[in-house]
# Entry
Amino acid sequence: MASAMSPTTVPATRERLLKIRGGHPLRGEIVISGAKNAALKAMAATLLTADEVVLNNVPMLADVLSMADLLRAFGAEVEVDRDAGRVQVRAREIVRTSAPPDLFRPTRASVVAAGPMLARCGEVSFSMPGGDQIGRRPIDVHLRGFKRMGATVEQRDDQVIACGGRLRGARIYMDYPSHTGTENLLMAATLATGKTVIVNASAEPEVVWLGHLLNRMGARIHGLGSPIVTIEGVERLHGVSDYVPPDRLEAGSFAIGAVMTGGEITMRDVREAHMLPLTEKLQEVGGEVWHNNDVMLVRAGRAPLNAVDIQTLPFPGFPTDLQAPFTALLTQAEGVSRVHERVYEDRLRYTTELQKMGADIRVERIGSSTSEFAASSAMIHGPGQLHGARVQAGDIRAAVSLVLAGLVADGETELDEVYHLDRGYERFVAKLTSLGADVEDTDPQM
Ligand code: EPU
# Structure
């Protein structure tokens, strides 16, 4: 199989900006794309079998193309059909167990290749994955789990070497329900001897879907979505064809945009149960939400928006990935809102950019953190008229927050580091403009 396109994951060298001219409510209808954080893990799972795995409804994002390159480096044949949104992988043979640093480091998601590689080959080495500037993001939970399953894990500088032949089932207590940590251990345990029990497992919808995908490949996993997940190891997994579920974070971002701009949008392919933590808060702030099968309608209410408090937590708590977009919305709500970020210690960094646009946000910094910015909570006084400014996106969700702020700002907002949007949102500018926003990408990459 040949690659249908050549991936580009490196930020453009010439200046690229997103220009947002505010004042247009979002109105109309869009179809939500497949979930990035589900598709990337499913791609990693393809390393567990020599058979072909076909994934449909895969969002064509820079991080997906990066993961395709990583799979190729391990020896997999990968075909990406951009128009069909399909990725076909056949990892007939694994040709190396050390991950090339230039392919492994750029995104956090590459860490989920470690579990499948260790399970299939009995060894893997990689350099610590990078990702967004949102906190320290260690992987101790993953590594402790590998050790519990009998692997020897060595860390030298930023290199991790794990080996030990076939993994053995074990009881693993996670002191935090890490999202990718659970995924890594789930995948590693599928081919281990005996039974693995993960206690305090993540219940994020993407983790649950990955578990079901693995079961369709022949794994024996029980308890998905609960804090205790049991995996009975099997001898081999087989191929599968599946459909990546819709992206609750993309749907959430547009829903926030509709309420914030005084608009009304209909979104197709949305799972109601995944949206609950957001819809509760959208209604509290004054938005109106309806679900009918997989269609979600969101609109601003008639009254001004109310201040609300949010705290981010693992699912089914309010998602940390929607904290930055929701904070942008809160700048338009009447009163004082409090945002408490409890998942990442450095995920309020983007608030300095919102301040440049005139937002009245005060953050409470954490004294003991290694980062000079790190803050855990913010107080937002609203409503305030935002104004266009030149701002910089530090991560995927911060980028969206700033775009949403630009939609209600006076004048033009220029967003720098636009490539973050390519990493997480499929056809973002096209979807926004189809809803009536005035947004221009000066150098589209995807
Ligand atoms: N943590 C540890 N040790 C570990 C693992 C995590 O201390 O071994 C800490 C982290 O430092 C962080 C917290 O636990 O403070 C949460 O980390 P978690 O492992 O749950 O997150 P993740 O797996 O690294 C995934 C998503 C994130 C999303 C979080 C929460 C992927 C590739 N990334 O990260 O998505 O915010 O779960 O749901 O799935 C994004 O899409 O923009 C994004 C950042």
Notes: The mean pLDDT is 94. Residues 24 and 437 are 6 Å apart (CA to CA).
